[in-house]
Amino acid sequence: MALDSKIPGGPIDTKWTNHKFELKLVNPANKRKFTVIVVGTGLAGASAAASMGELGYNVKSFCFQDSPRRAHSIAAQGGINAAKNYPNDGDSVHRLFYDTVKGGDFRAREANVHRLAECSNLIIDQSVATGVPFAREYGGMLDNRSFGGAQVSRTFYARGQTGQQLLIGAYQSMMRQVSLGSVKLFPRREMLDLVVINGQARGIIVRNLVTGELESHEADAVCLATGGYGNVFYLSTNAKGSNVTAAWRAHKKGAYFANPCYTQIHPTCIPVTGDHQSKLTLMSESLRNDGRVWVPKKKDDTRSPDQIPEDERFYYLEEKYPSFGNLVPRDVASRNAKLVCDKGMGVGSSKKAVYLDFAAAIDRYGKGSAPKGADAAKIKEVGEGIVASKYGNLFQMYQKITDENPYKVPMRIYPAVHYTMGGLWVDYNLMSSIPGCFVLGEANFSDHGANRLGASALMQGLADGYFVIPYTIGGYFAGTKLEKVTAGHVGFEEAKKESQARIDGLLKIKGKKTVNEFHRELGKLMWENVGMARNKAGLEANLKKIPELREEFYKNVNVLGSDGDFNQNLEHAGRVADFLEFGELMTFDALHREESCGGHFREEHQTEDNEAKRDDVNFSYVAAWEYKGDKARQELHKEQLTFDNVHLATRSYK
Amino acid sequence: MSGNMTITLKIWVQKNVKTQGKFETIKVQHVSADMSFLEMLYIANEQLMKEGKEGVNFDHDCREGICGMCSLVINGLPHGPDHSITTCQLHMRKFKDGDVIVVEPWRAAAFPILRDCAVDRSAFDRIIMAGGFISVNTGNSQDANSIAIPKVDADKSFDAAACIGCGACVAACKNASAMLFVSAKVSHLALLPQGKVEKVKRVLSMVEQMDKEGFGNCTNLYECEAACPKEISVTNIARMNREYLFATAKHEDVVVSAGF
């Protein structure tokens, strides 16, 4: 099948407006005749369920957690971008669009990004109306702060818990629809398969995680808002339950997977401390507003940070990128942290960390606000208070994990897997290559190119859910003939049988190694060879090792308990089984992309000063992979990217 | 880099909601002080699985103290001995070599045990469903800065909105009261101009649902506040009681004036 991105014609700033008008409508009385399944209840899923419920569709909402309010959007800390230009610093929809295309290293679709920027302002209005308590100034107006990759302050925030507050807002709106009967909730359900009948997505198979029962749910369309695949690395900032299963199952049913090698390694995370580590914790990018990143100039310097004089410190971001300084985009900050650590300047016992230092900010704020004639101690106290009011919860989190007080000593940070820009391929209407299967939020590929800018994920999730899918799904229904299908259809029976067979297969292996051991091993392979820096030899080695590990998994994994119980071990086994397949595709995609762009850094393709070197002539396309059976190589489909509004150029943050 | 602490766990196991549960004793070796409590439980589970036994099931997800999914009573304290954090943020440096640690699920009639240490907290979702929202449809909002909100009110609202819905307040209360959870939501919305429109109906419906779910009454012991990982204050309960009193009076007005 050829890829048709269905990008509307006309100038960039009128495409979405015209497209909304041209989309066919479903009249209000007919909407209740359509059922929509939404899988996932993060920002994209919850807002989609709420807004489609408000329109009158019958919505069925699924999540694997015990409550829809727990989805991992909740952990987003720093903020959400919008082009409101409240600070009067020159922001506009066009500037947000421009920054996002550039930040994505020219590997995103212009039309989608422009729509995202257009929706950004509506999101802030909508969120405030639903009761999101954003940070405010004393005059009662909304406050903004800065994030990486932008020279304006356009980030709205709610202390260090912006994701939580936005998600609770969307969750509340969704719960209102539940009370009105238009949304039905199915928590503690894991999607195991997508049911495709006559070439259209018509439902899903889920496992009830409490009773173990497999359930069939029919619908007229299925929306996947199931998040990213960062847990293929085992260690990431994702929640422990985040997984690729729903997306991967849809992929195997015909949905193309786009740019799986685009992963975001976030520069500011708490470093790994030992083999026991099960999860990495992010320290919000917003900290780079006030924190200064540095390492000792001397290699293997074991002095404590306060003993290292100013002129022996290497503020490498400020020196290398004077115009953006500590607020360069994430891929640039991460790569530079790796570079200085590889050169032996890293700090901490592992030597794989850099300092994020707040001393200068504490001093600056203290001097600005302390009463006249205050002594040094008082200035420090006032300064610490101001820093606490901005980032208090993050500082507390850091202290609990590391047992160090970041008000007194600099934080130690190191990059970690955080977000995945790749995902299921979708057209402008957010529909995958399977008619009737829509993909929203992090689970799709479309808006962030090869690198996502900070505070853009929340924006995309809510844009897709509140302001895009409610329109485009109507266009699909109004223009499509849908036969009546019930959960008794043979298509459901077959998919259910396949899911049951996979579960039975896992339970009967009864090998010697635990699921977690396999997950760790896979994660290690992925981090070493498809992590922050990638090269041909490593990627090729991975393409040998992953299938071997997968083979061993099916011979030697030990999955305990039964399928008729609440069984977390079985849940994990199913997810790892899918990661073991997905990891291979991701590696293959990284190997095929012979260029460096954004978060995809191929060591063979770099400039003299170690910046990513793109190859626009040969790789300015979206790589969409089609599943061709377990034994065959996936087929590559290319969607050529054109840049008519943002001039293709080498990114520079100097 | 595993550690050198040995911990004895007495942990609750229970097959499902219908069966009787019991404590199981597990000796966990090679625990390091830098491990999180849940990482220590992972080691315990790996150990059990190596012996061919099922691991203990417990809810957890984000591991950053924000999703509200983790939920263990550790040595009698919801979320364990450290203050203002969730179980997933608790680290083994709070314990010492040779300690015996008792681990249980939340215990409340409104939170039935599903398996081992995992409980059903859907009662909280039903309380939110009853009125914990602002009735505004997508698309009909005005510019976000058109209503100025005093910073003090916005901050207070935020303090209440920080609730993660974990249920530690219920687990800590001898009456299994959900007043702190419900009052946090009532306060979050009542403190904002956008939420004031529906405040009468909201507090009445939410309290009614809370009672229906079988949560107990508040007897002002403040155990909830002490256990709350997000430091939600009991002043929210006082605020809810005021809102409720006002709402019942107002509600009668509404009923009388409507001629019932």
Jot down its keywords.
heterodimer, A: 654 residues, alpha+beta, Flavocytochrome C3, Chain A, domain 1, Methane Monooxygenase Hydroxylase, Chain G, domain 1, 5-stranded parallel β-sheet, 5-stranded antiparallel β-sheet, 14% strand, B: 260 residues, Ubiquitin-like (UB roll), Fumarate Reductase Iron-sulfur Protein, Chain B, domain 2, 5-stranded mixed β-sheet, two-stranded antiparallel sheet, 9 helices, elongated, disordered C terminus
Word description of this protein:
The complex is a heterodimer of chains A (654) and B (260). Chain A has helices at residues 15-22, 28-31, 43-55, 93-103, 110-129, 162-180, 245-252, 316-320, 330-342, 359-369, 376-402, 457-478, 490-509, 515-530, 536-556, 568-592, 616-619; strands at 35-39, 58-62, 80-81, 155-156, 183-186, 189-197, 200-208, 214-218, 221-224, 257-258, 263-269, 292-296, 313-314, 354-357, 411-420, 423-424, 437-439, 621-626, 635-640. Chain A is of the alpha+beta class. Among the domains of chain A are: 268-417, Flavocytochrome C3, Chain A, domain 1; 490-618, Methane Monooxygenase Hydroxylase, Chain G, domain 1 (Up-down Bundle). In chain A, strands 5-2-1-9-17 form a 5-stranded parallel sheet, sandwiched between helices. In chain A, strands 11-15-14-12-13 form a 5-stranded antiparallel sheet. In chain A, strand 7 and strand 8 form a beta hairpin. In chain A, helix 3 (43-55) runs parallel beside helix 6 (162-180), helix 14 packs antiparallel against helix 15 and helix 15 runs antiparallel to helix 16 (568-592). With 260 residues, chain B is α+β, with helices and mostly antiparallel strands. Chain B has 2 domains: 5-115, Ubiquitin-like (UB roll) (Roll), CATH 3.10.20.30; 122-257, Alpha-helical ferredoxin (Fumarate Reductase Iron-sulfur Protein, Chain B, domain 2), CATH 1.10.1060.10. Chain B is elongated and about 60 Å long. Chain B has a 5-stranded mixed sheet with strand order 2-1-5-3-4. A two-stranded antiparallel ribbon of chain B has the order 6-7. At the A-B interface, helix 3, helix 5, helix 6, helix 11 and helix 12 of A face helix 1, helix 2 and helix 3 of B.
